[in-house]
Amino acid sequence: MTTMTTGSGTLTRDALAVLQPGFVGTTAPDWLLRRIGEGLASVGLFGRNIVSAPQVAALTAQLRAERDDVLVAIDEEGGDVTRIEVRTGSSFPGNLALGAVDDLELTRAVAHELGRRLAECGVNLNWAPSADVNSNPDNPIIGVRAFGADTELVARHTAAYIEGLQAAGVAACTKHFPGHGDTNVDSHHAMPRIDVDLDTLHRRELVPFRAAIAAGSKSVMSAHILLPALDPARPATLSPRILTGLLREELGYDGLIVSDAVEMQAIAGTVGIERGSVLAIAAGADALCVGGGLSDEGTVLRLRDALVQAVRDGELAEERLADAAARVRALAAWTGAARGDRTAPGAAVQEGTAPGTGGDIGLVAARRAARVTASPSWRPLERAAYVATFTPVMNIAVSSETPWSIGAELAELLPGTESGTFGTDSGAADVLAAAGERRIVAVVRDEHRHPWMAAALDALLAARPDTVVVEMGVPRAAPRGALHIATHGAARVCGRAAAEAIAGS
């Protein structure tokens, strides 16, 4: 039963304040503006809300006309996960590329420039970076979103990224606490479980989060994962032992704790979003991300009323809800102050550049991240080629609208280049027929995780040994082909860097 509440009460305002909902459209609907006026303190933007940077700036101005200190959040990791450039691909390589270069000043500069562009659009909270250690190479959800599989590397680049982003006036949200790297299940679809002991968790998963806390990360996002060594009954998002006992008390974190999206099946398919929201706030979360899949007013009202009812029933302490709302408002105040002070500590990088480099920092980073292995007979291509992209099922964090591969980028350098996509029901014969006499560029993604992809590439290289291979995922498989390029990600700039290597530009 839905509890009817008024829009004027402190309890209702606090319940609205802890929600971070999404919506449909490229302008703010009336219901959203009305709820902001009633106490809603945060709004999440997704690809469906974005056409261009000027449009996003106009949208955020519309929101702030209703409430000047509203938090406008976005999932803008760069690399594969982009919302601002959802239809073109990102101008910034993702974490794995930055980890492959392992230049902290470069990571800091990339994050700063990304943050500067977000701030220009009026976005002040970024659900990034991923601090997960990609220790399981078969991980279907993290992969190139992690800085790597080495704990210390991940820790130092997590800290550098936070420093760069927050120096631009945009709050970081380090995720997915206490670490999503050692899973082979996507929590969008089911409940992942990590069966490691406490010593391993402290030596591996928690090290980057300690670095994030030391770097001053303004928020941390919880993961919907079960870690029996910490809590055998509840996933991290719903666990007082993990959010309060570990993150707050043991690690000493005092910033905002944000839940991963409560409509993900690990929550929605188990306890449900209303019950899950109450349990998350009671466990120590301060804000609830919702809106990637559920983006209507009814969802906001259901969650608001579930929280209010839980307080009235004595299931959720009113002080806990008030504390959560206060932390949301404190972060909003920080972002407001940061808008007027873009020279905060840590801002010792110039916009768009890194020490010893010039030009577009995203492309600079992508070029440096590309690892090229050439056969002795390799010569750059001078004529139009055929780009065959072997396409796996994408993880849900990557928008289906976001293009990837290198076809468009190579066609700019070698006019007349054509492209085709090939899935599990395709083979080398299909590629050979489509390519004709043209040189083939085979683009793969996480070849090591997809036997069908490896088999198709085997057959293609047997028939055409002069094939170029571009790996745009985690490069675990051995380099092969006349030229092999590991881009460490599928951002648009990664495609450009690969195309330049193929054309000798």
Show the helix and strand layout.
Layout: H1 10-17, E1 19-20, H2 30-38, E2 42-45, H3 53-66, E3 71-74, H4 95-101, H5 104-120, E4 125-126, H6 151-167, E5 171-177, H7 198-214, E6 219-222, H8 240-250, E7 256-259, H9 265-268, H10 273-283, E8 287-289, H11 297-312, H12 318-339, H13 361-369, E9 371-374, E10 386-390, H14 407-413, E11 418-422, H15 428-435, E12 440-444, H16 451-463, E13 468-471, E14 483-486, H17 492-503
Parallel strand pairs: 1-8, 2-3, 3-4, 4-5, 5-6, 6-7, 7-8, 10-11, 10-12, 12-13, 13-14
Antiparallel strand pairs: 9-14
Task: Explain what you see.
By secondary structure, this protein is α/β, with parallel strands linked by helices. The chain is built from 17 helices and 14 strands. The strands form 2 sheets. Strands 1-8-7-6-5-4-3-2 form an 8-stranded parallel sheet. A 6-stranded mixed sheet has the order 9-14-13-12-10-11, with helices on both faces. Helix 14 links the parallel strand 10 and strand 11. Helix 13 crosses helix 17.
